[in-house]
Write a structure and sequence with these properties.
This protein is of the alpha+beta class. It has 3 domains: about 40 residues; about 250 residues, 4-Layer Sandwich (Deoxyribonuclease I, Chain A), CATH 3.60.10; about 45 residues, no CATH class. It is about 35% helix and about 25% strand. It contains 9 helices and 15 strands. A 6-stranded mixed beta sheet has the order 3-4-2-1-15-14. Helix 1 packs antiparallel against helix 2 and helix 5 packs parallel to helix 6. The radius of gyration is 21 Å and the shape is globular. The two termini are about 35 Å apart.
């Protein structure tokens, strides 16, 4: 790990020098360090982070945010509310120094982007770009596996949000992605239950929650942070006057990816009122991939010790699951424990 941190520091220094003086030696040194970084981290490791940045039009803020992103040492970065435009896309790509896929909004509204660490093994076969800058979807091959990556920034008004999610469902239904690993992430702009909010009006925005749950149901996705943290109150957005805290940012992932999750966290960020959310997958080459859905191993029912343990624990797990408004999350919690 120390090896990777040192390489990261040297990389940033060289990148700055390279922009001042585009010498062949500097460019070669950067590419060489990127290769060493990948070897040090392990080719199968797969790290992601997502953050609502509240605008990157300002150069100084954009420079600070991109620098913060580099320090996170992740492979893919999902940013929302970027305020990107077609006119600035080339400049942003040069500043980042790696591949970027953008759905543009305006200079003061919307916009989402997916930023890749330069040298990360990812090949994009198809992309769906929202002309309003609310979402971008990529069909990508990562470490020889097929993924469907979606970055969204949902509206915060119920009428607009309902239309947005209805549109999203229809767009994704057009193509058959049954066998792909799906990761939908971003700022959903809606707490999913009482545990995801503190302060303010505690009335559930049921029509919007229903649509998000429909997306989960149709595409067999689950809120992995809540599955891993069933009783924890933690938030990704806050305001001071009045004091309100909400969890608005989510990772919705396929069943097939559950066992690959090494870590998931809410991370303090800079220059925005949102915290970042991170997701870390294990070495994909060393993980045995399942069929994409949970199935009970019925041979365990012949194991008396297992049956006794289940009879003892299931009552507790069901009671814990009753705290979730979404019964599917409660079911995920039981499966996770089993």
């Amino acid at each position: 790990m120390l090896f990777c941190v040192v390489l990261g520091y040297v990389y940033i220094v060289l990148l700055k020098e390279c922009r001042k003086n585009l010498s062949v030696v500097a460019i070669f040194a950067i590419q060489f360090i990127e290769i060493l970084y990948l070897l040090g981290m392990g080719l199968g490791e797969f790290k992601l982070i997502s953050l609502n940045v509240r605008g990157l039009s300002n150069f100084k803020k954009r420079k600070s945010i991109l620098s913060w992103c580099r320090k996170q040492k992740v492979d893919i970065i999902f940013l929302q509310e970027t305020h990107s435009t077609v006119q600035k896309e080339k400049q942003w790509k040069a500043e980042w120094g790696g591949p970027i896929e953008l759905a543009h909004g305006s200079t003061n509204a919307r916009g989402v982007g997916i930023f890749f660490w330069n040298g990360f093994d990812c090949k994009i076969s198809k992309k769906i770009v929202d002309p309003l800058g609310r979402y971008i979807a990529l069909e990508a091959i990562i470490n020889d596996e097929s993924y469907f990556l979606v970055n969204i920034y949902a509206p915060n008004k119920d009428s607009e949000s309902a239309k947005f999610y209805d549109h999203l469902i229809n767009v994704f239904k057009k193509d058959d992605r049954t066998f792909e690993d799906k990761i939908i992430v971003g700022d959903f702009n809606c707490p999913l239950n009482q545990m995801d909010k503190k302060g303010g009006i505690m009335i559930t925005r049921q029509s919007i929650v229903d649509r998000i749950e429909e997306i989960q149901s149709v595409f067999n996705l689950h809120d992995i942070w809540r599955v891993k943290n069933p009783n924890l109150k933690s938030f990704t957005w806050s305001q001071k006057s009045p004091f309100i805290f909400c969890r608005l940012d989510y990772w919705l992932i396929s069943d097939a990816l559950f066992d690959m999750v090494k870590g998931i966290d809410i991370v303090p960020s800079i220059k925005t009122d949102h915290s970042a959310i991170s997701l870390h997958f294990k070495d994909l080459e060393n993980v045995s991939r399942g069929p994409g859905f949970w199935k009970m191993n019925q041979s365990l029912l012949k194991d008396n010790a297992f049956v006794e343990t289940m009879q003892e624990k299931l009552v507790t797990w069901k009671e814990e699951g009753n705290e979730f408004s979404d019964k599917r999350v409660a079911w995920d919690w039981v499966k996770y424990n089993v």
